[in-house]
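CORE FACILITY INTAKE
Project code: CF-77B
Contact: R.S. (postdoc)
Sample description: multi-component assembly, two entities in total
Requested service: structural model of the whole complex
Turnaround: standard
Below are the sequence entries exactly as provided by the requester. Do not edit them.
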Amino acid sequence: MEEPQTFNLGESGLLLCWDRPPDPHLSREIVELGQRLARTPPPGLIEWVPGLRSLAVYYDPLRLQRETLAGWLRELCQGIALPDVDPSPPLVVPVRYGGVWGPDLEAVARKSGLESEEVIRLHTEAVFEVVLIGFAPGFPYLAGLPEPLRLPRRTSPRARVAKGSVAVAGAYTGIYPREGPGGWSIIGQTAWEWFDPGDEPPCRLALGDRIRFCVEVQ
Amino acid sequence: MNPRVAWHLATGSDFAWRSNEGLHLSAPQAVWVEEARGLVTIQDGGRWGAQRLGVSVGGAMDARAAMLANVLAGNPRGAALIELGWDAALTLLFPQATGLALAGAGLEASLGEGRIPPWSPCRVEPSSLVRIRVTHGRFGYLACTGGFSLPSVFGGRGTDLRSGFGGIGGRALRSGDRLPLGDEAPGLPSHRGALAMELRPPYHRDPTLRLLPGSHWVSFPEASRAVFLGASYAVTAVSDRMGYRLSGPPVAPNPGLEVESEPVTGGSVQIPLDGEPIVLMADRPTVGGYPRIGEVLAADLPLLAQLRPGDRVRFREVGHAEAVQDLRNFEAALRRLEIALHG
């Protein structure tokens, strides 16, 4: 993979950024880089955290020089060239759209110039792929949102988004695995559990998993 | 062990052995919460290693005060201890003799008729009642010798209130909670006297926070950066363990800048659409989609953590070398303290 730009993320973090649009292939390469780094960890390495087109590496700067770490990462990048993989069959997830479960469905329809039914149809026809787990425990960023549904996040975030909420923002759809604050537009809700610290693995979804949503029959 | 099972073991009622009183030698060492009001949680050095599952680092808001309380109590720096919020009142019962230490911007603690001085190792005798509240600043810490032996969830013992795990059942402490003491400490510290002033964070109502520019720094127009570095910002009431929202001259981001969610850290200064900075604190999300102007140094984040709504901050730009030198100095001082206290 190509060499990233490197920045400070505080005195104990190095942020690598790739200058190309995020996609599932870039996500896999970023995670591969993190895993390779952790396989032979330099002394002072704390942890690695992927973004959509970035990777943070946290380290102890008293044990590991920033330049040494950056050089080692650049070298690792050169060895990464992942082949395309056959997509896995999508997990079909029932969703209750609109109403109390999807308080922003109508606003999303209005802003995208569609009827609510059309929004639901587009959202249930698409096949999504997990490109990042982050923000909150088990929160998946799902790529593959149809173009008409791509809207900016809400101007002011909600203090409380219900557990299981299915939401859209930008080019992504996501699922809130727990109640919490959030700025995405909520169009529906799933009744499934998505994250449990007592499970192994705790996250129901992993990078590369595919999802299709369907309308839950009530 | 399944962490969920482990919580139940830790949170299950032990009133059975307590009601026998007699403060038996055979009973496991523990501290009892007689009364807890407001935000009182178990915290530690943070939950590192699970951010790629979206799990927040968490840990003590004033990481340096927490670290110093632990070292004074004879513990490893990252041991589990009690964090009190500014609205908190806490009464603890110590059935057995133990050591403790208090730290933070301003605490008042009484032991019977006497006072417990902060920043100082202290020994409590069996059946002692200790009452604590935060008098100024925002967070106070109480470390008990041995640390609290609570189950580790994703590598941390601290309470994550939003996710509902860590600490005692992922919630704030309440009366009747039993906090088991661990044996992580070499023993009660024998040292007396208070911690030297130069080791304590230089708390101030109007601090200047040093900032290391981050990945979006150059994408802010020069005028925006000048506004940000020249202004004084007030801490608003919209501030909690996740982040402190500031109010002051708006910082205009580059309108063409598109941020794809990327990792954020403690001290990350986000500039949302309204231009008023949000500084991310212990319970931050793992990634964020707002432009960030930079990161507050680890040494200065405790100064911000201790501010209340209406207190003010300024920012000053520094380089990586200065930031690391500061860490090196603190590490050396802490190491000297550990040797002086425990050999």
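Facility notes:
- Residues 30 and 166 of chain A are 26 Å apart (CA to CA).
- Chain A has a mean pLDDT of 95.
Invoice: internal transfer
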